[in-house]
Structure prediction request, 114 residues.
Amino acid sequence: MSGLSITPEDLTALQQGGTVRRAPAGEVLVREGAEAGSLFLVRSGVIAITRGAKRLGTVGAGDVLGQMALVHDGHRSASAIVEEDAELVVVPASFVRRLMEERPALQAALRSTP
Prediction:
């Protein structure tokens, strides 16, 4: 999962706090510079990560998206655009922050992202 060491228990807790939603190809999930409102758990599909005009890579099933803004300065460092129809669990930032306070290992895992 994006190289993160999130425990199965923490992953389950994140999923329980979120809402499943589908996102069609072409949808912009987050824009670079925007305030972070949520974290995304990717269940299926492919999402391109860009900064400015530069493509940084992609994320897909089993990956976490948006954690950097939640644990660092609160603003998105890159944009995320759905390339292949995706199913996501959208977890509100307030829930993620509360969970990080209750679960230090989750906070450490999310903070360890390069």
User: Anything to note?
Assistant: The longest strand covers residues 38-51. Strands lie at 19-23, 28-30, 38-51, 54-60, 64-65, 79-92.
